[in-house]
Design a protein that fits this description.
Strand order of the largest sheet: 2-1-4-9-8
CATH architecture of the largest domain: Sandwich
Number of domains: 2
Distance between the termini: 81 Å
Largest sheet: 5 strands, antiparallel
Order of helices and strands: HEEEEEEEEEEEEEEEEEEEHH
Strand content: 35-45%
CATH superfamily of the largest domain: Immunoglobulins
Length: 277
């Protein structure tokens, strides 16, 4: 019995070795044969993603065709999703898919077909199934520092790290709530399966303690978002005044510029040894 099973496995592998295949390049790497399936990963509602394959393949005799596949076509997507099939005769063929911005969380299956136009290379068409996991949880957010001290009207930098665990390169929007003088919107892009850190400046004119909320939202759907609390303390201190010199927030006659530079260096040194006021 084992010998029979082993023989069948060898025959199947030999068939695969000479059969046409599709090499998926994005959003993951995979090699698929007729009737195969691939799990693409996670995507947020409304977030555009691409499926890209190589045009190269082999025929049943094992002959290589660099441009064997001439188009990639998607069918059977859920209602409300938008598909743009690939262009013709490129080295890499990409299908663009826009899920509905109101798509419910869950696993969705659709069909993809690699086509050899008019069967010119006698490859026919290769159909396979793609599965996408739609979820709003497609990125990890880290914010530092979450407790910030600065002087009135002096900008302070917050570092926002977005670890994009999804398959989309759609932009994210950084905003802040809770600071009367600051409501800047900053669009950023963290490519799929990468982590990027962005600088987001904040400031306030009036002294006080402000409990703000930093928001990161997908530019494609408000359902994809995360928040982090940030405490901003605005107060008049000698160190903050020295820092303001480096930021250009305080103006004096030009003949005192060497003194201002020294003041700014002092503020940085005091900050390094932990003296903040």
């Amino acid at each position: 019995m084992r010998a029979v099973l082993l023989l069948l496995a060898v025959v199947m592998l030999a068939g695969y070795a000479s059969a046409s295949y599709v090499t998926v390049l994005e959003p993951i790497n995979a090699t698929l044969y007729q009737g195969g399936s691939v799990l693409l990963g996670k995507d947020g509602p409304g977030q555009t993603f691409y499926i890209t394959i190589s045009a190269a393949t082999k025929n049943s005799t094992g002959a290589l065709f660099e441009n064997g596949w001439n188009q990639l076509v998607a069918t059977g997507v859920p209602q409300g999703w938008i598909v743009q099939n690939s262009s013709l005769n490129d080295q890499q063929l990409s299908v663009k898919i826009d899920p509905s911005p109101n798509a419910q969380t869950g696993m969705y299956t659709f069909n993809l077909t690699a086509i050899n136009t008019a069967n010119y290379s006698h490859l026919g068409a290769l159909a396979f199934t793609a599965i996408i996991d739609i979820t709003p949880d497609v990125f990890v957010l880290q914010v530092a520092p979450t407790n910030v001290s600065t002087g009135p009207g002096q900008p302070a930098s917050i570092f926002v790290t977005i670890n994009n665990t999804g398959v989309s390169d759609s932009p994210f929007i950084i905003t802040m709530q809770g600071l009367p003088a600051w409501n800047t919107t900053k669009p950023v892009i963290a490519l799929h399966h990468t982590s990027e850190t962005f600088t987001y400046p904040v400031y306030e004119y009036e002294p006080g303690v402000y409990h703000a909320v930093l928001n990161v939202t997908s530019g494609s759907s408000p359902l994809v978002y995360k928040r982090s609390g940030v405490n901003l303390t605005v107060q008049e201190t000698l160190i903050n005044d020295f820092k303001a010199v480096g930021q250009g927030a305080i103006g004096f006659p030009i003949i005192y510029q060497p003194v201002y530079a020294l003041m700014y260096i002092i503020s940085k040194l005091l900050g390094l040894i932990g003296i903040n006021s």
